[in-house]
Amino acid sequence: MNDPEKAHHATINLLALGGSLAPGRGLIRAMFPIKQNGPEVKAFGLTFSNPLGMAAGYDKEGTAWRGLACLGFGHIEVGTVTPLPQPGNPKPRVFRLVEDEAVINRMGFPGSGAEAMRRHLDHPRPKGLVLGVNIGKNKNTPLENAAGDYVSLVRAFASKADYLAVNISSPNTPGLRTLQKRVALEALLNPIAAERSAQSIQLNKPVPLLVKLAPDLTDDELDSALEAIQSAGMDGVIIGNTTLRREGLISSKATEEGGLSGKPLNELNTSMIKKVYARCGGTLPIVASGGVMQAADAQRKLDAGAVLIQLYTGLIYEGPGLVAKIINSGLRS
Ligand SMILES: Cc1cc2nc3c(=O)[nH]c(=O)nc-3n(C[C@H](O)[C@H](O)[C@H](O)COP(=O)(O)O)c2cc1C
Question: Would the N or C end of the chain have less CB density within 10 A of its end CB?
Protein backbone atom coordinates (compact mmCIF):
# COMPACT_ATOMS: atom_id res chain seq x y z
CA MET A 1 0.00 0.00 0.00
CA ASN A 2 1.59 3.26 -1.16
CA ASP A 3 -0.41 5.78 0.83
CA PRO A 4 0.93 5.75 4.43
CA GLU A 5 -2.34 7.08 5.83
CA LYS A 6 -4.36 4.30 4.16
CA ALA A 7 -1.87 1.70 5.42
CA HIS A 8 -2.26 3.16 8.90
CA HIS A 9 -6.06 2.96 8.76
CA ALA A 10 -5.86 -0.68 7.65
CA THR A 11 -3.66 -1.49 10.67
CA ILE A 12 -5.90 0.47 13.04
CA ASN A 13 -8.99 -1.36 11.76
CA LEU A 14 -7.26 -4.71 12.24
CA LEU A 15 -6.18 -3.80 15.78
CA ALA A 16 -9.66 -2.47 16.55
CA LEU A 17 -11.27 -5.70 15.34
CA GLY A 18 -8.72 -7.99 17.00
CA GLY A 19 -8.88 -5.99 20.21
CA SER A 20 -12.67 -6.14 20.44
CA LEU A 21 -12.82 -9.96 20.72
CA ALA A 22 -11.19 -12.17 23.35
CA PRO A 23 -9.81 -14.68 20.77
CA GLY A 24 -8.36 -11.77 18.76
CA ARG A 25 -6.66 -10.39 21.84
CA GLY A 26 -5.28 -13.85 22.66
CA LEU A 27 -3.96 -14.21 19.11
CA ILE A 28 -2.14 -10.85 19.16
CA ARG A 29 -0.59 -11.68 22.54
CA ALA A 30 0.52 -15.10 21.28
CA MET A 31 2.13 -13.53 18.20
CA PHE A 32 4.19 -11.07 20.25
CA PRO A 33 4.93 -12.77 23.57
CA ILE A 34 6.21 -10.71 26.49
CA LYS A 35 8.74 -12.90 28.29
CA GLN A 36 9.62 -10.59 31.18
CA ASN A 37 7.34 -7.65 31.82
CA GLY A 38 8.67 -4.67 33.74
CA PRO A 39 10.27 -2.89 35.31
CA GLU A 40 7.20 -1.50 37.04
CA VAL A 41 7.17 2.31 37.14
CA LYS A 42 5.38 4.52 39.63
CA ALA A 43 4.84 8.03 38.30
CA PHE A 44 2.35 10.83 39.01
CA GLY A 45 0.35 8.56 41.30
CA LEU A 46 -0.07 5.80 38.70
CA THR A 47 1.54 2.37 38.41
CA PHE A 48 2.79 1.31 34.98
CA SER A 49 3.53 -2.39 34.35
CA ASN A 50 6.52 -1.37 32.20
CA PRO A 51 8.00 1.95 30.99
CA LEU A 52 6.95 1.69 27.32
CA GLY A 53 3.87 3.40 25.89
CA MET A 54 2.18 4.15 22.59
CA ALA A 55 2.63 7.83 21.69
CA ALA A 56 -0.29 10.06 20.76
CA GLY A 57 -1.50 10.26 17.18
CA TYR A 58 -1.44 6.52 16.42
CA ASP A 59 -4.83 5.73 17.93
CA LYS A 60 -6.26 9.18 17.30
CA GLU A 61 -9.90 8.11 17.68
CA GLY A 62 -9.47 5.70 20.57
CA THR A 63 -10.73 2.73 18.57
CA ALA A 64 -7.68 0.44 18.64
CA TRP A 65 -6.26 0.71 22.16
CA ARG A 66 -7.50 -2.72 23.28
CA GLY A 67 -5.66 -4.35 20.38
CA LEU A 68 -2.57 -2.19 20.87
CA ALA A 69 -2.46 -3.16 24.55
CA CYS A 70 -1.94 -6.80 23.51
CA LEU A 71 1.39 -5.86 21.89
CA GLY A 72 2.73 -5.29 25.42
CA PHE A 73 2.51 -1.52 25.97
CA GLY A 74 2.28 -0.48 29.63
CA HIS A 75 0.38 2.64 28.62
CA ILE A 76 -1.40 4.00 25.59
CA GLU A 77 -2.05 7.65 24.86
CA VAL A 78 -5.07 8.09 22.58
CA GLY A 79 -5.83 11.35 20.70
CA THR A 80 -5.11 14.11 20.07
CA VAL A 81 -8.85 14.64 20.55
CA THR A 82 -10.46 18.03 19.93
CA PRO A 83 -13.83 19.15 21.37
CA LEU A 84 -15.62 19.11 17.99
CA PRO A 85 -15.12 16.90 14.94
CA GLN A 86 -12.82 18.41 12.27
CA PRO A 87 -11.34 17.18 8.98
CA GLY A 88 -7.67 18.07 9.51
CA ASN A 89 -5.42 19.21 6.67
CA PRO A 90 -5.88 18.24 3.01
CA LYS A 91 -4.39 14.86 1.96
CA PRO A 92 -1.69 13.71 1.38
CA ARG A 93 -0.49 14.69 4.83
CA VAL A 94 1.74 11.80 5.95
CA PHE A 95 5.05 11.04 4.21
CA ARG A 96 7.53 8.22 4.82
CA LEU A 97 11.19 9.20 4.51
CA VAL A 98 12.34 5.60 4.16
CA GLU A 99 16.08 6.31 3.72
CA ASP A 100 16.01 8.37 6.92
CA GLU A 101 13.74 6.01 8.93
CA ALA A 102 11.54 9.04 9.50
CA VAL A 103 8.04 10.37 8.91
CA ILE A 104 6.79 13.88 8.17
CA ASN A 105 3.16 14.50 9.06
CA ARG A 106 0.89 17.51 8.85
CA MET A 107 -2.33 15.80 9.92
CA GLY A 108 -3.75 18.81 11.82
CA PHE A 109 -5.82 16.82 14.38
CA PRO A 110 -8.43 15.16 12.15
CA GLY A 111 -11.03 13.34 14.22
CA SER A 112 -14.61 12.72 15.25
CA GLY A 113 -14.38 14.88 18.37
CA ALA A 114 -14.79 14.37 22.10
CA GLU A 115 -18.21 12.75 22.18
CA ALA A 116 -17.20 9.93 19.82
CA MET A 117 -13.91 9.39 21.66
CA ARG A 118 -15.76 9.11 24.98
CA ARG A 119 -17.88 6.29 23.53
CA HIS A 120 -14.79 4.49 22.22
CA LEU A 121 -13.22 4.51 25.68
CA ASP A 122 -16.28 2.87 27.27
CA HIS A 123 -14.85 -0.65 27.34
CA PRO A 124 -13.39 -2.71 30.14
CA ARG A 125 -9.73 -1.84 30.60
CA PRO A 126 -7.16 -4.65 30.10
CA LYS A 127 -5.59 -5.46 33.48
CA GLY A 128 -2.73 -3.11 34.33
CA LEU A 129 -3.09 -0.85 31.27
CA VAL A 130 -2.72 2.89 31.87
CA LEU A 131 -4.78 4.93 29.42
CA GLY A 132 -3.92 8.55 28.68
CA VAL A 133 -5.94 10.99 26.61
CA ASN A 134 -4.07 13.66 24.66
CA ILE A 135 -6.15 16.83 24.25
CA GLY A 136 -5.93 19.71 21.76
CA LYS A 137 -7.87 22.70 20.52
CA ASN A 138 -10.02 22.85 17.42
CA LYS A 139 -8.41 24.66 14.49
CA ASN A 140 -11.29 27.17 14.32
CA THR A 141 -11.08 28.11 17.99
CA PRO A 142 -9.20 31.43 18.23
CA LEU A 143 -5.99 31.14 20.25
CA GLU A 144 -7.33 33.55 22.88
CA ASN A 145 -10.18 31.06 23.54
CA ALA A 146 -7.93 27.98 23.56
CA ALA A 147 -8.24 27.52 27.33
CA GLY A 148 -12.01 26.97 26.90
CA ASP A 149 -11.36 24.03 24.56
CA TYR A 150 -8.85 22.42 26.90
CA VAL A 151 -11.03 22.96 29.98
CA SER A 152 -14.00 21.32 28.25
CA LEU A 153 -11.78 18.35 27.36
CA VAL A 154 -10.53 17.98 30.95
CA ARG A 155 -14.20 17.87 32.00
CA ALA A 156 -15.05 15.34 29.26
CA PHE A 157 -12.18 12.94 29.93
CA ALA A 158 -11.24 13.21 33.63
CA SER A 159 -13.44 10.22 34.45
CA LYS A 160 -12.38 8.16 31.42
CA ALA A 161 -8.60 8.58 31.48
CA ASP A 162 -5.82 7.77 33.93
CA TYR A 163 -3.96 10.90 32.84
CA LEU A 164 -4.44 13.77 30.41
CA ALA A 165 -1.77 15.23 28.13
CA VAL A 166 -2.10 18.87 27.13
CA ASN A 167 -0.82 19.12 23.56
CA ILE A 168 0.48 22.61 22.77
CA SER A 169 3.30 21.45 20.54
CA SER A 170 1.84 20.13 17.29
CA PRO A 171 3.35 22.15 14.43
CA ASN A 172 0.25 21.52 12.31
CA THR A 173 -2.35 23.68 14.06
CA PRO A 174 -1.67 27.35 13.26
CA GLY A 175 -0.38 29.28 16.28
CA LEU A 176 -0.62 26.31 18.68
CA ARG A 177 3.06 26.37 19.59
CA THR A 178 2.88 30.03 20.69
CA LEU A 179 0.92 28.74 23.71
CA GLN A 180 4.26 27.46 25.05
CA LYS A 181 5.42 31.04 25.74
CA ARG A 182 5.49 31.90 29.45
CA VAL A 183 2.57 34.36 29.71
CA ALA A 184 0.33 32.44 27.28
CA LEU A 185 1.19 29.16 28.99
CA GLU A 186 0.29 30.43 32.45
CA ALA A 187 -2.97 31.86 31.12
CA LEU A 188 -3.72 28.46 29.57
CA LEU A 189 -2.60 26.15 32.37
CA ASN A 190 -4.20 27.93 35.33
CA PRO A 191 -7.84 27.36 34.23
CA ILE A 192 -6.94 23.80 33.14
CA ALA A 193 -5.45 23.14 36.58
CA ALA A 194 -8.54 24.61 38.27
CA GLU A 195 -10.86 22.33 36.27
CA ARG A 196 -8.63 19.36 37.06
CA SER A 197 -8.91 20.08 40.79
CA ALA A 198 -12.69 20.35 40.54
CA GLN A 199 -12.90 17.05 38.64
CA SER A 200 -10.49 15.35 40.98
CA ILE A 201 -12.63 16.28 44.01
CA GLN A 202 -15.86 15.27 42.28
CA LEU A 203 -14.49 11.93 41.08
CA ASN A 204 -12.46 11.32 44.23
CA LYS A 205 -9.39 10.30 42.21
CA PRO A 206 -6.24 12.01 41.00
CA VAL A 207 -6.32 13.40 37.46
CA PRO A 208 -2.64 13.79 36.50
CA LEU A 209 -1.91 16.44 33.87
CA LEU A 210 1.12 16.29 31.58
CA VAL A 211 2.22 18.93 29.08
CA LYS A 212 3.69 17.90 25.73
CA LEU A 213 6.38 20.31 24.54
CA ALA A 214 8.08 20.87 21.18
CA PRO A 215 11.72 19.92 20.64
CA ASP A 216 12.27 23.21 18.83
CA LEU A 217 12.17 25.49 21.90
CA THR A 218 15.32 27.53 22.61
CA ASP A 219 16.95 26.97 26.00
CA ASP A 220 15.37 30.18 27.33
CA GLU A 221 11.93 29.23 26.02
CA LEU A 222 12.28 25.78 27.56
CA ASP A 223 13.28 27.27 30.92
CA SER A 224 10.34 29.64 31.06
CA ALA A 225 7.89 26.95 29.87
CA LEU A 226 9.12 24.64 32.64
CA GLU A 227 8.69 27.40 35.23
CA ALA A 228 5.10 27.96 34.10
CA ILE A 229 4.43 24.21 34.07
CA GLN A 230 5.75 23.74 37.59
CA SER A 231 4.08 26.82 39.02
CA ALA A 232 0.73 25.68 37.58
CA GLY A 233 1.16 22.35 39.40
CA MET A 234 1.41 20.10 36.37
CA ASP A 235 2.43 16.49 37.08
CA GLY A 236 4.91 15.90 34.27
CA VAL A 237 6.11 16.72 30.77
CA ILE A 238 6.21 14.77 27.54
CA ILE A 239 9.47 15.53 25.71
CA GLY A 240 8.41 15.95 23.05
CA ASN A 241 6.54 16.34 19.82
CA THR A 242 7.75 16.27 16.20
CA THR A 243 10.37 18.76 14.96
CA LEU A 244 10.40 21.38 12.23
CA ARG A 245 14.15 20.85 11.75
CA ARG A 246 15.39 19.08 8.65
CA GLU A 247 19.18 18.73 9.07
CA GLY A 248 20.92 15.69 7.67
CA LEU A 249 18.03 14.14 5.77
CA ILE A 250 18.58 12.38 2.44
CA SER A 251 15.04 11.44 1.38
CA SER A 252 13.44 13.43 -1.44
CA LYS A 253 10.38 13.83 0.81
CA ALA A 254 12.41 15.91 3.29
CA THR A 255 11.00 19.14 1.84
CA GLU A 256 7.41 18.28 2.79
CA GLU A 257 5.88 20.60 5.37
CA GLY A 258 5.00 19.26 8.80
CA GLY A 259 6.56 17.65 11.86
CA LEU A 260 9.45 15.20 11.51
CA SER A 261 9.59 12.07 13.68
CA GLY A 262 11.69 8.92 13.90
CA LYS A 263 15.42 8.28 13.84
CA PRO A 264 16.59 11.84 13.01
CA LEU A 265 14.74 13.09 16.10
CA ASN A 266 16.49 10.70 18.48
CA GLU A 267 19.56 12.69 19.54
CA LEU A 268 17.74 16.04 19.66
CA ASN A 269 15.15 14.41 21.89
CA THR A 270 17.65 12.78 24.25
CA SER A 271 19.55 16.03 24.70
CA MET A 272 16.30 17.84 25.53
CA ILE A 273 15.47 15.18 28.15
CA LYS A 274 18.89 15.75 29.72
CA LYS A 275 18.28 19.52 29.82
CA VAL A 276 14.87 19.13 31.47
CA TYR A 277 16.25 16.64 33.98
CA ALA A 278 19.14 18.97 34.84
CA ARG A 279 16.77 21.94 35.10
CA CYS A 280 14.13 20.26 37.27
CA GLY A 281 16.35 17.85 39.20
CA GLY A 282 13.91 14.99 38.94
CA THR A 283 11.02 16.97 40.50
CA LEU A 284 9.06 16.85 37.22
CA PRO A 285 8.59 13.35 35.73
CA ILE A 286 9.67 13.18 32.08
CA VAL A 287 7.97 11.01 29.44
CA ALA A 288 10.30 10.53 26.46
CA SER A 289 8.86 10.61 22.94
CA GLY A 290 11.14 10.96 19.95
CA GLY A 291 13.18 8.56 17.86
CA VAL A 292 12.92 5.28 19.77
CA MET A 293 13.64 2.77 16.99
CA GLN A 294 15.44 0.05 19.03
CA ALA A 295 15.69 -1.19 22.62
CA ALA A 296 18.99 0.65 23.12
CA ASP A 297 17.33 3.97 22.23
CA ALA A 298 14.69 3.35 24.89
CA GLN A 299 17.32 2.59 27.54
CA ARG A 300 19.26 5.76 26.64
CA LYS A 301 16.14 7.88 27.28
CA LEU A 302 15.70 6.25 30.70
CA ASP A 303 19.39 6.83 31.45
CA ALA A 304 18.96 10.49 30.44
CA GLY A 305 16.30 10.96 33.12
CA ALA A 306 12.98 9.85 31.60
CA VAL A 307 10.66 7.71 33.73
CA LEU A 308 8.56 6.49 30.80
CA ILE A 309 9.15 6.17 27.05
CA GLN A 310 6.75 6.34 24.14
CA LEU A 311 7.17 5.44 20.49
CA TYR A 312 5.34 5.87 17.23
CA THR A 313 7.57 5.95 14.12
CA GLY A 314 9.59 2.94 15.29
CA LEU A 315 6.44 0.85 15.00
CA ILE A 316 6.09 1.86 11.33
CA TYR A 317 9.66 0.83 10.43
CA GLU A 318 10.27 -2.10 12.79
CA GLY A 319 6.73 -3.52 12.93
CA PRO A 320 4.54 -4.44 15.91
CA GLY A 321 7.14 -6.88 17.28
CA LEU A 322 9.25 -3.88 18.36
CA VAL A 323 7.18 -3.46 21.54
CA ALA A 324 7.91 -6.97 22.84
CA LYS A 325 11.51 -6.68 21.63
CA ILE A 326 12.07 -3.56 23.74
CA ILE A 327 10.32 -4.90 26.84
CA ASN A 328 11.99 -8.30 26.58
CA SER A 329 15.39 -6.57 26.33
CA GLY A 330 15.13 -5.98 30.09
CA LEU A 331 14.90 -2.22 30.50
CA ARG A 332 16.45 -0.69 33.64
CA SER A 333 14.70 2.35 35.08
C1 LIG B 1 1.48 10.47 11.77
C2 LIG B 1 1.73 11.06 13.12
C3 LIG B 1 0.67 11.67 13.80
C4 LIG B 1 0.89 12.24 15.06
N5 LIG B 1 -0.17 12.80 15.72
C6 LIG B 1 0.02 13.31 16.97
C7 LIG B 1 -1.07 13.83 17.70
O8 LIG B 1 -2.22 13.83 17.26
N9 LIG B 1 -0.81 14.35 18.93
C10 LIG B 1 0.44 14.36 19.49
O11 LIG B 1 0.62 14.82 20.61
N12 LIG B 1 1.50 13.83 18.81
C13 LIG B 1 1.31 13.30 17.58
N14 LIG B 1 2.37 12.77 16.91
C15 LIG B 1 3.71 12.82 17.54
C16 LIG B 1 4.04 11.52 18.27
O17 LIG B 1 3.18 11.31 19.35
C18 LIG B 1 5.49 11.54 18.79
O19 LIG B 1 5.58 12.52 19.80
C20 LIG B 1 6.51 11.86 17.72
O21 LIG B 1 6.19 11.19 16.53
C22 LIG B 1 7.93 11.48 18.14
O23 LIG B 1 8.03 10.11 18.43
P24 LIG B 1 8.56 9.00 17.38
O25 LIG B 1 9.87 9.51 16.85
O26 LIG B 1 8.67 7.76 18.18
O27 LIG B 1 7.53 8.92 16.31
C28 LIG B 1 2.18 12.21 15.64
C29 LIG B 1 3.23 11.57 14.96
C30 LIG B 1 3.03 11.02 13.72
C31 LIG B 1 4.18 10.33 13.02
Answer: N
